[in-house]
Amino acid sequence: MIKLKSLLNESSPGFENRQVGDALPTLDSVRTAYQAKKALEEAESFTAINKGSGKVTAFKSKDARDSAVKAGTHDKSKDSKDDKKDSKGGVNIFKKDSDSDSKKNLQKIKKDKSSSSNLDNAYDADDFQDSVDNLKGKISDEDYEEIKDNLEGLKNLQYDLEDIDRDEDNEEWGMQTDTIDVEVDDLKGLIKQAISKSSDSKDAPKSEPSKPRAGNPQVNKVVRNKAKSLGVTPQKLGKEEYEKRMSQAAVEALTDANFHSESRALIAVLEDNPELAKNPSDDPNKPDMFSDEYDEWKKGTAWGSSFGDSSDGTDDIAHSATGESSWDGQESIDAIAFDLKMNGSHKLAAKIQSIFDEKNESTTSIVDMIPESVQINEGTRSQVGVIGRNGKIISAYVHYDGYPSNMKTGLKHHMKSDKDVLKLIKMGGARGIFNDKDIEYHKGGKPQKGDSKDIESYLKAADRSNGAEFVYLYNMKDKKWYYADTYKDTELKKLF
Questions:
Q1: How far apart are CA 382 and CA 371, in angstroms?
Q2: If we measure between CA atoms, which residue out of 435, 428, 449, 450 comes closest to residue 401?
């Protein structure tokens, strides 16, 4: 039963809080007060939750609120006006949350913001940032790094979208949005999977994570700009064609850098056929190149793989990587993998980078078993330098045909004194040193230093830094040339 005092107050607007001596209310003041109260009630009633931020937004009218909900940007809040119904289905104008109820609602909103349901609604990279940041220390380091990497790729994709005409009939724009949609789903899946794994293995011992290689930032930048300038992007070509061409670029980069064993290993991974990692030249049943059987035989080898072929732009991308990295095979394919990751192709990027994982068979053990005659076909890297009168060594990288039978004649022809060798080092190395042609200097390689008192360490460093299979050193004391096989020798041998 409503009390008389309440009825009087309700039927006497403007008199509710009037004190003795206060001016009497006017019709205009009562109308203004009523309209302000009504607007406040509506602002408080017609609310919805922003899907992106999780914050409650107040709308001026029910229609405005409903339009936002229909557009998909908001979810209707449970305390909105038309949801507050009494048992008869009408609006319950007397219902009001207590302080404790308000606190509970606030806590629930905060909880919903960090829940998987909010993750399901995330789309912009910024929507994921807080969720990803909160995962640190709660999931494995390996999973966290992968998720961060994917988030960076999503940011890049959405940034690039801004440069494309926003038109649904624009094929490039459509491809880009499709790529973003896939990346968003992948990121959500990774986050949920990582959380699930973490919950299932809380008591399991933690293994040392293997973080994905970031590569050389400068090489990454050059390759990415080259791919964009050539139109080798998922937006221009579609994801499937883009991934095929970048795979071809990775194989060519390894081949150009003289990492032939790794090139075959990559083809084997891409084709999911370990047999393709074998050197076709070693096959005792290899038919004659001009026979009818040769083409059919070739199909079953790395030489017959489409990933070893070239498509528009693939060689240019590969050579931009090897040129900028000074023919460093790992940095070259890391740069190609970086572009793939920035375009949402994380699985393919991981496959390509796995060629240089420690768990894979090393090039050293492979080359060690191959006779020199085969190494010639495979390409041979070397270091050429001088041993100073103080025993210090400095050398430069030579990219092609560093096997002794070639280098002996080439050095005799071009390197007749220490001045010639020092010029080679000053110029940054060379593509090759041949008896019958001029030296094509590289102009950019970094010198390799060492000490003749610890020649073994120098040989290991020469192998590790550039994959040099041989070193050739001119001794300034006796004016003689010496050499060593970095895989087998622990001391220098006289060349001539």
A1: 17
A2: 435
What is the rounded CA–CA span in Å between residue 261 and residue 268?
11
* pTM (global) more than 0.85: no
Question: Taking a C-beta distance cutoff of 8 angstroms, is the pair 430, 402 a contact?
Answer: no
* Backbone φ and ψ of 56, nearest 5°: -85, 130
279: which 2 tokens? 């050197």
Distance CA 62, CA 82 (A): 9
Per-residue pLDDT reduced to its tens digit, 403-451: 888 899 899 999 988 999 998 888 888 888 888 888 888 766 678 889 9
